[in-house]
């Protein structure tokens, strides 16, 4: 188990477009394991490779705490509906904000054996897929926040 340092907002690596993964090497597998460890250690629901300083198109997501998903070279194929809700990011510690995302997302990606698969998500999973896909393009959710960025201990409902 290896916990990597999570890069924070202001770090230029978070603004870069990530490169496609062409093959899975032992280093790639180690990176994915470390990303999962780092995400769980930080109690996050998703983490993208640039958040640990690696400009590769890899994300890990787990919205239940027992269902790790690895998406390599993810491509969003389809979206539907809208959901508006609270969002945060391990690279923006202590903050959260209101973001509107699709209510439904269908994504194609490769797994750790470079096999192509499709995944559908709604609610938090749809939100996480979009949030993590944005990281791979060098975007943070703070660019999409409606209103202002809040401290996490504020009750966001009261501001509506
Ligand atoms: Ni994030």
CATH homology-level superfamily: Peptide deformylase
From N to C, what is the helix and strand string? HEEEEEEEHE
The percentage helix is 10-25%
Distance between the termini: 42 Å
Strand proportion = 25-35%
Largest sheet descriptor: 5 strands, antiparallel
Bound molecules: nickel (II) ion
Question: Strand order of the main beta sheet, please?
Answer: 1-2-3-6-7
Oligomer: single chain
Question: How would you describe the shape?
Answer: globular
Descriptive labels:
alpha+beta; 160 residues; binds nickel (II) ion; Peptide Deformylase
Report on this model:
Helix content is 19%, strand content 32%. With 160 residues, it is an alpha+beta fold. The strands form two sheets. Strands 1-2-3-6-7 form a five-stranded antiparallel beta sheet, with helices on both faces. The protein is globular, with a radius of gyration of 15 Å. Bound molecules: nickel (II) ion. Nickel (II) ion binds next to helix 2.
Question: Quick gist of this model?
Answer:
The chain has 160 residues and is an alpha+beta fold.
Q: What is the element layout, followed by pairings?
A:
Layout: H1 26-41, E1 46-48, E2 58-61, E3 69-80, E4 83-87, E5 95-101, E6 104-110, E7 116-122, H2 123-136, E8 146-151
Antiparallel strand pairs: 1-2, 2-3, 3-6, 4-5, 5-8, 6-7
The structure holds nickel (II) ion.
Nickel (II) ion is lined by residues 89-91, 131, 135.
């Amino acid at each position: 188990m290896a916990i990597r340092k999570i890069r924070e907002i202001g770090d230029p690596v978070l603004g870069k477009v990530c490169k496609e993964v062409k093959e899975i090497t032992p280093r790639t597998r180690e990176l994915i394991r470390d990303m999962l460890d780092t995400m769980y250690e930080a109690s996050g629901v998703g983490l993208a490779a640039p958040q640990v300083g690696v400009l590769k198109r890899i994300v890990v997501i787990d919205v239940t705490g027992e269902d790790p998903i690895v998406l390599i070279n993810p491509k969003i194929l389809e979206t539907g509906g809208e959901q508006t809700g609270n969002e945060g990011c391990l690279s923006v510690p202590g903050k959260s904000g209101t973001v509107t995302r699709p209510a439904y997302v269908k994504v194609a990606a490769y797994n750790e054996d470079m096999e192509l698969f499709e995944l559908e998500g709604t609610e938090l999973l749809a939100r996480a897929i979009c949030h993590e896909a944005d990281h791979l393009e060098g975007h943070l959710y703070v660019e999409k926040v409606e209103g202002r960025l809040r401290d996490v201990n504020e009750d966001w409902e009261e501001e509506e």
